[in-house]
């Protein structure tokens, strides 16, 4: 069902780490050389008399040494340091000047990435200002335009089966990903630069590998139907406020919908992604190769590992604590579909939204 939520961590290789730290300033204040201490010349001794019994006269007390005036050191003139620059990322950006990923979560309980893509999510970052937007396409969407004159889904066939449908054209998995990217570009009207797909095993293991994920909830979340053991009982039990999630709990958090809806589940997935990306960023570029190697086969992406430093730098600039979260559902973005629980995109409204949040970066 959910699964793509963690795609971006690795794919968050997709984004990536803190910008380089500027070196120390080249400017330094000059300190005046220390002054010499004033020389102290003792007074003359008394001259001895001709008498055999000589009583020396007391020595004159020398006059107090004049203290040197304090040396005033000029304050160093601040030398402006150049703002840290991102590595060359132009080859990663589309003609729109931004980086956009398509994240797919497969409803697969095995290690194989087969099944419905119940999570279809768009994530974008504006490299100029660090603004991040995430938008999720609900799995029950029908009549989704995916090519000129073509729509997918009607009745009980929903958009979460589109990937499997496109695989039927042949050419292997890579060709199917390419067709899926093109389909979502047509649906949204924007450019997509990279993709990533992950399943249940990948989500669970990846969250554990990065040491868990923190999420903050406005209210408690309790779902006794989720198959996870917490606090001595079965079910998802999370308190209002900050919660630390391990892999099993994170997967349950991203899948639960019985207490509210698919739309709220989509928001939770986005929240989990943001938290996971923060953890991946902390690992730095050197932490990515072993992470990628460990999850070989559990994650499919066209991200080149050689691009990790640039992507991590880009992610480090991302304002993940204040990202724009959108679910393309009723009533603003979709209306009722042709059967119960299905929805149909208001395609003009949807494309206008994508142009506003995912469109060309202005200079």
Structural commentary:
With 363 residues, the protein is an alpha+beta fold. It contains 9 helices and 17 strands. Helices cover 27% and strands 19% of the residues. The protein starts with 6 loop residues before the first helix and ends in a 5-residue tail after the last helix. It has a 6-stranded mixed beta sheet with strand order 14-7-1-2-3-15, sandwiched between helices. A 3-stranded mixed beta sheet has the order 4-17-16. The protein has a two-stranded antiparallel ribbon with strand order 5-6. The protein is globular, with a radius of gyration of 33 Å. It has helices at 7-10, 162-167, 172-188, 200-209, 247-255, 262-283, 288-294, 308-317, 347-358, and strands at residues 99-106, 117-125, 132-136, 141-142, 144-147, 150-152, 194-198, 213-217, 221-223, 229-230, 233-234, 236-238, 241-245, 299-301, 324-327, 334-336, 343-345. It has a domain at 4-17 and 84-210 and 277-358: LCP protein (Aminopeptidase, 3-Layer(aba) Sandwich).
Shape: globular
Strand percentage lies at 15-25%
CATH class of the domain at 4-17 and 84-210 and 277-358: Alpha Beta
Counting copies of identical and different chains, the oligomeric state is single chain
Q: Could you tell me how far the N terminus lies from the C terminus, measured between alpha carbons in angstroms?
A: 39 Å
Helix percentage: 25-40%
In total, the number of strands is: 17
CATH superfamily of the domain at 4-17 and 84-210 and 277-358: LCP protein
Describe how the helices and strands are arranged:
Blueprint: H1 7-10, E1 99-106, E2 117-125, E3 132-136, E4 141-142, E5 144-147, E6 150-152, H2 162-167, H3 172-188, E7 194-198, H4 200-209, E8 213-217, E9 221-223, E10 229-230, E11 233-234, E12 236-238, E13 241-245, H5 247-255, H6 262-283, H7 288-294, E14 299-301, H8 308-317, E15 324-327, E16 334-336, E17 343-345, H9 347-358
Parallel strand pairs: 1-7, 3-15, 4-17
Antiparallel strand pairs: 1-2, 2-3, 5-6, 7-14, 8-13, 9-12, 10-11, 16-17
């Amino acid at each position: 069902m959910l699964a793509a939520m963690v795609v971006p961590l690795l794919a968050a290789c997709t984004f990536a780490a803190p910008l380089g730290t500027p070196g120390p300033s080249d400017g330094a204040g000059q300190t005046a050389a220390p002054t010499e201490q004033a020389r102290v010349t003792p007074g003359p001794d008394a001259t001895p008399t001709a008498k055999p019994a000589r009583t020396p006269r007391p020595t004159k007390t020398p006059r107090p040494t004049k203290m040197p005036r304090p040396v005033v050191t000029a304050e160093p003139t601040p030398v402006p340091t150049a703002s840290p620059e991102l590595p060359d990322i132009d080859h990663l950006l589309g003609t729109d000047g931004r980086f956009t990923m398509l994240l797919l979560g497969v409803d697969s309980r095995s290690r194989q990435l087969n099944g419905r893509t119940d999570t279809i999510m768009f994530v974008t970052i504006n490299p100029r200002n660090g603004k991040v937007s995430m938008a999720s396409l609900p799995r029950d969407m029908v009549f989704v335009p995916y090519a000129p004159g073509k729509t997918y889904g009607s009745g009980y066939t929903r958009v979460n089966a589109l990937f499997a449908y496109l695989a039927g054209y042949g050419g292997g998995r890579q060709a199917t990903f390419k067709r899926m990217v093109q389909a979502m570009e047509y649906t949204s009207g924007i450019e997509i630069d990279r993709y990533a797909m992950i399943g249940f095993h990948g989500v669970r293991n990846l969250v554990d590998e990065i040491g868990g994920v923190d999420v903050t909830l406005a209210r408690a979340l309790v779902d006794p139907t989720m198959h996870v053991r917490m606090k001595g009982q079965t079910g998802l039990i999370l308190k209002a406020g900050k919660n630390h999630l391990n892999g099993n709990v994170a997967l349950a958090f991203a899948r639960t919908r019985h207490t509210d809806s698919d739309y709220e589940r989509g928001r939770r997935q986005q929240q989990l992604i943001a938290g996971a990306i923060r953890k991946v960023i902390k690992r730095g570029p050197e932490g990515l190769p072993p992470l990628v190697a460990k999850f070989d086969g559990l994650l499919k992406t066209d991200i080149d590992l050689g691009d990790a430093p640039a992507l991590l730098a880009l992610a480090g600039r991302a304002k993940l604590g204040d990202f724009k979260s959108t679910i393309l559902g009723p009533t603003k973005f979709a209306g009722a579909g042709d059967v119960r629980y299905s929805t149909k995109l208001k395609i003009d409204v949807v494309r206008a939204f994508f142009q506003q949040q995912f469109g060309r970066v202005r200079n």
